[in-house]
Amino acid sequence: MKLQRKNRLRATALGALAVSGALVLTACGSDDNTGADAGGDKTSAAASNIKCDDAKGQLRASGSSAQKNAMDLWVKNYMAACSGVEVNYSSSSSGEGIVAFNQGTVGFAGSDSALKPEEVAESKKICKTGQGINLPMVGGPIAVGFHLEGVDKLTLDAPTLAKIFDTKIKKWNDPAIAKLNEGAKLPDEPIQAFHRSEDSGTTQNLGKYLNAAAPSDWKYEAEKKWPAPGGQAASGSSGIASQVKAVDGSIGYFELSYAKSQEITTVDINTGGAAPVEATSENASKAIAAAKVKGTGKDLALDLDYTTKAEGAYPLVLVTYEVVCDTGNKADTLGTVKSFLTYTASAEGQKVLTDAGYAPIPEAINAKVRETVAGLS
């Protein structure tokens, strides 16, 4: 049974790669945006709709590792259309990306959480005539992946997840897990829970979900730095995924495309609705569609509902923002920033994400993003 499931997962992952091109899963900080393109016709079609406009030279960006696979696809398509333009996205963490943005070393930053007030204040030193704003660009589920020999399907709820990551539940055959998985042969083995070692927007979004859905069991503030004692740390989404892939008895959290590409089985979440919900792009989209814009002015930060019980809505989601200056952008990169983000927010740019395990931003919000990008100066 497990071998058959692995084969099915392998076929799914390879199919996604064939459609969307190579997902480059490199070490943190890599700028390698190359890879074999098994879907050349699709890439060419997407590239043909890209408007290069005033794009020129090199554009550097950095931040969220959760959106690294999305950036790989976008950068490949964009550079195929705009010859002579180079876009380098360095996958590190949301925290490092915002620091780089506020130091003026990148044209934009990727972050899984909206800027804090103090980060906005700091951005005014770089943006000169303006400030940093949040543009929602990538949506998707935060997958909870696990590796447990003999178990190929697992359901957990928010309180149980909270206790696992807070090391209050230490064994896989704990009664709370067994109650949610009747009939499963859960081993009397220790749980090895992995979390991010560096500041991470994905960590903060997991915290927001646990705060909202399990307030009695998760008492920590939703911050980018991992707050709970115990557990084991790994760097980047790719680092956690690699550990979960290798270590029996492990569990960790990362963006869904890492689970797909490394054939990691993911947890279904019991939301209290009619049935447990699988981590899929479609199910995440159902949750993100209910998001409301809470930012003011040109800022488009979103308010997500982590406690939804809507049928088929996967509640553990994140939205990755591209952080840019609304005004005061550097003249040598402004044209490329506007051209590139116009593409990523386009219907074509969002469409290529679905095959890679992401959830496109709802069109009503995406239209506001395109309007804001057009007005950057």
Fold and architecture overview:
- With 377 residues, this protein is α/β, with parallel strands linked by helices.
- It has 2 domains: 191 residues, Periplasmic binding protein-like II (D-Maltodextrin-Binding Protein, domain 2), CATH 3.40.190; 145 residues, D-Maltodextrin-Binding Protein, domain 2 (3-Layer(aba) Sandwich), CATH 3.40.190.10.
- The chain is 39% helix and 18% strand.
- The protein contains 14 helices and 13 strands.
- The strands form 3 sheets. Strands 1, 2, 3, 4, 6, 7, 8, 9 and 13 form a 9-stranded mixed sheet that branches.
- The longest helix has 19 residues.
- The chain is elongated and about 60 Å long.
- The chain starts with a helix and ends with a helix.
- 50% of the residues are buried.
- The N terminus is likely disordered.
- This is Phosphate-binding protein.
- It holds the Pfam family PBP_like_2.
- InterPro entries: ABC_phos-bd_PstS, PBP_domain, Phosphate-bind_PstS.
- Belongs to the PstS family.
- Keywords: Phosphate transport, Signal, Transport.
